[in-house]
Amino acid sequence: MRIALKIDVDTHEGLKTGVPAMAAMLRREGVSASFFVAMGPDNSGKAIRRAITNRGFLSKMFRTRAVSMYGWRTIVSGTLLKARPVAMAFPGLLRDLAAAGFEVGVHGYDHVRWQDRLDQLAEPEMQQEIADAFEVHRAIFAEPPRAWAAPGWRINGLAMRLLDRAGLLYRSDTRGIAPFRPQVDGEPLSTPEIPTTLPTLDEVLGREKLPDAASVARFYQRQMNPGALNVHTVHAETEGIGQLESFTLLVRGLREAGAQFLRMDQAAMQLDRESLPVCPVVRGLLPGRSGWVAIQGA
Ligand SMILES: [Zn+2]
């Protein structure tokens, strides 16, 4: 059983607190992973605020779990207070991560802007979003990125075509079942797409009766497809902070069950681009998640 852990880092706090904790745990377990980091500002306060709806924002903050899940500073980042940078605030941490053998890829520039306004971005704006993300990566690592994972699993034809010109090793923008080459307007692109194959923890907790960390770990072990490349996306903001125990049990359980952990770039290098299936990318809804995501089509 092969499994790739895709760790999305959406926020300043996620990178500062969640990533070091996850990296330390993964090193203790002898497991590698791929981190995808938002390269631009942390505007997550805007997204959290909108998710809770604008009316009665502050009182709802107290009643819901938002404060314990995100912390106050993240909630006001980009709303009451200036947005904090994500990647650029911790260049040394990111370089250490790569030096320790983890993969570090790009998770967009402004995560919230991409996720909420993707279809409203005109070509020059989208090109700028991509160019800014690449520029920050170059500033930190002195080389261009080799992998891109779209914020919120949201991608459209224009973005796929622009990114296809970037000469990436692979992308991971969608939810699906197996690696493929996306097709846009009937034309196959050249960059392979490695989809996330498993549901995320926030999707699962909303619909499954999983009272403790051990039951969450057992649930995921049952979801694994022994014959395929399993790609599991976790978040530095959740599995790296409040759900670290659950994530640790999952990693340990899978390792003890004989799973082979590999980085997504290692999986990508094993792919033969010419023999990959060509699939359209469609939009759909997933149980436990609000709003559309990009899904591997038939
Ligand atoms: Zn994200």
Can you give a write-up of this model?
It is a single chain. With 298 residues, the chain is of the alpha/beta class. The chain folds into two domains: 2-41 and 94-296, Glycoside hydrolase/deacetylase (TIM Barrel, Alpha-Beta Barrel); 44-82, no CATH class. Helices cover 42% and strands 17% of the residues. The chain is built from 14 helices and 13 strands. The protein has helices at 12-29, 44-52, 57-63, 66-70, 72-75, 91-99, 111-117, 123-141, 157-164, 201-205, 213-223, 238-242, 244-256, 264-269, and strands at residues 2-9, 34-37, 41-42, 84-85, 103-106, 147-148, 170-171, 181-184, 187-188, 229-235, 260-261, 278-284, 293-296. Strands 1, 2, 5, 10 and 11 form a five-stranded parallel β-sheet that branches. β8 (181-184) and β9 form a beta hairpin. It is globular and about 45 Å long. The chain binds zinc ion. The site of zinc ion has 6 residues, from loops. Zinc ion (ZN) binds next to loops.
Summarize the structure.
By secondary structure, the chain is an alpha/beta fold. The chain folds into two domains: about 1-40 and about 95-295, Glycoside hydrolase/deacetylase (TIM Barrel), CATH 3.20.20.370; about 45-80, no CATH class.
